[in-house]
Amino acid sequence: MRTRAIPAAVLAAMTVVTLAPTATAASSPGEASPLDFAAALDVPDGTIYSARLRGAPEAAAVAGEALGTFPRTGDDYVILSTGVAADVPGGDPVDDLSTELGDARGADGNDLSQLSLTLVPPAGARCLALDYQLLSEEYPEFLDGEYNDVFTAELGRSDVTVAGDRIEAPRSFAVDPDGEIATVGTVLGFGRATDTGMDGTTVALEAHTRFVAGAEDGRFTLVLSVQDIGDSVYDTAVLLDSFRWLYGDMCAATPLERSPGGSGLDLFMPFQIVE
Would you call 42 exposed, middle or buried from its count of C-beta atoms within 10 A (0-12, 13-18, 19+)? Predict the structure, then answer.
């Protein structure tokens, strides 16, 4: 059983990120269909071919009330968690928020929540982008090593492997400027959270990538996953919103309208960190 002792030096150095939810409101387990999740992610009408959820029903939810700068656009967003998604908006951080689900197993056999979308890109689109925010109960005690939970955004299929303390996800485009994948111990911007069930959170980040559509039917698959690494205790979650198609050769980010419930942490450029 892992302990939760936090060194005094770590406590003193932690950044506080206030999310300030207006209420706890998320879909009940099984209430939202996979296509409801695609709509909450803002996938444009006519460009979604199919959607599939993998994992425990309670690990995924469509949320309709503001949590920090989410929703980024529209009225709702997606929560994927390795625990109970409805616990993520929460109130104050919950001590040892931890649920062993067991419905789907990730790279090393622990809890996995995954949304797969088969997409039909519009004419002229070359890239795609989406916004995400990673939250975790692993912060700040387990920032490295064997308990380094991970979020991945991949095209085609998921390919995550674990070798010792090293997580490899060569297909994931949810990376920081140093090319580090979005794990609790490596992604930029983690700070101590308030007003959420999780102990730690990043600010809102952007993931974007160029895609290659299928030669015959033009379709391809986007796979969004969050998974526990090392064991299935201490939950990690990701907020997802503002899917958008990008046009042109540079795959550049596009500014987003500020969320009406924004808390001052809105980011318009990828990977900028607000202290």
Answer: buried
Q: Quick: pLDDT tens for 78-90.
A: 999 999 999 898 7
The token pair at 128 is: 């795609």
Nearest Cα to Cα of residue 214 among 155, 259, 153: 155
Contact 146, 268 (CB under 8 A): no
Q: Quote the tokens at residue 190.
A: 């983690």
214's tokens = 């299928």
Q: Which helix or strand (DSSP H or E) is residue 91 part of?
A: none
Gap between the Cα atoms of 30 and 56, Å rounded? 9
One-letter-per-residue 3-state SS of 202-215: CCCEEEEEECCCCC
pTM listed for this prediction: 0.83
Rounded CA-CA distance 35/49 in Å is: 9
Backbone angles phi, psi at 48, to 5 degrees: -110, 125
Helices and strands in the chain, H and E counts: 2, 15
Using an 8 Å Cβ cutoff, are 38 and 67 in contact? Answer: no
3-state secondary structure of 18: strand
Query: Among 125, 110, 119, 104, which Cα is nearest to 42's?
Result: 119
> How many whole angstroms separate alpha carbon 131 and alpha carbon 239?
8
Contacts of 15 (CB under 8 A, 6+ apart): 190, 191, 192, 275
The span from the CA of 275 to the CA of 261, in Å, is 19
pLDDT tens sequence across 181-220: 888 877 767 788 777 888 888 889 999 999 987 766 889 9
125 three-state secondary structure: strand
Q: How far apart are CA 184 and CA 152, in angstroms?
A: 12
Cis omega before residue 140 (within 30°)?
yes
